[in-house]
């Protein structure tokens, strides 16, 4: 391997006519310096081959789904799905002005009992929506707050809770069978 490469390099260097060898000598390049440069290049190429990178492609979904709830400090506020969406739009407008007000949010499912909803928003607007919900502290002068339970690229994963799973180590699981 390396002996053959060095032999090829030596043959290449010696294949120049005497004038080329004289020109190399004039500019200060000797056989030893060219050999040294050749060895450094070989080391660099071996190092580059050993440090290959793995490229991971992430596919971004168009929409993101959120499981959120609204809680008022003093209970008794009547809120339906339309009012819930309006409160979200007000939060976006307060935090981001007209740009925030232009964010389209869909209320997919709403429970009036605990003011909890599944929302759908474009992925590009997720941070804007999430931050405006987090910063909301009142509506119509009444203290309130949003709580974000889950965020997911899939609506199906919002309905699943890991709290309902019984996690067993593999040894205990096999013993139970």
From TrEMBL:
Transmembrane segments: none annotated. SUPFAM superfamilies: Rnp2-like. The keyword Magnesium does not apply. It comes from the Eukaryota. The keyword Repeat does not apply. One of its GO terms (cellular component) is multimeric ribonuclease P complex. Keywords: tRNA processing. GO terms for biological process: tRNA 5'-leader removal. GO terms for molecular function: ribonuclease P RNA binding. PANTHER family: RIBONUCLEASE P PROTEIN SUBUNIT P14. Belongs to the eukaryotic/archaeal RNase P protein component 2 family. This is Putative ribonuclease p 14 subunit. It comes from Rhipicephalus microplus. The lineage of its organism: Eukaryota, Metazoa, Ecdysozoa, Arthropoda, Chelicerata.
């Amino acid at each position: 391997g390396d002996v053959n490469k060095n032999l090829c390099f030596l043959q290449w260097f010696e294949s120049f006519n005497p004038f080329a060898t004289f020109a190399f000598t004039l500019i200060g390049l000797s056989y030893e310096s060219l050999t040294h440069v050749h060895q450094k290049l070989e080391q660099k190429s071996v190092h580059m081959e050993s440090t290959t990178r793995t490229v991971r492609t992430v596919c971004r979904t168009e929409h993101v789904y959120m499981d959120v709830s609204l809680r008022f400090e003093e209970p008794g506020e009547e809120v339906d799905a339309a009012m819930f969406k309006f409160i979200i739009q007000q939060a976006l407008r307060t935090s981001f002005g007209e740009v925030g007000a232009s964010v389209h949010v869909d209320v997919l499912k709403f429970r009036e009992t605990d003011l909890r909803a599944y929302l759908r928003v474009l992925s590009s607007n997720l941070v804007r929506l999430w931050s405006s919900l987090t910063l909301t502290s009142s509506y119509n002068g009444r203290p309130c707050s949003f709580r974000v339970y889950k965020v997911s690229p899939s609506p199906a994963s919002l309905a699943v809770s890991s709290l309902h799973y019984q996690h067993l180590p593999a040894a205990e699981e096999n013993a139970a069978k």
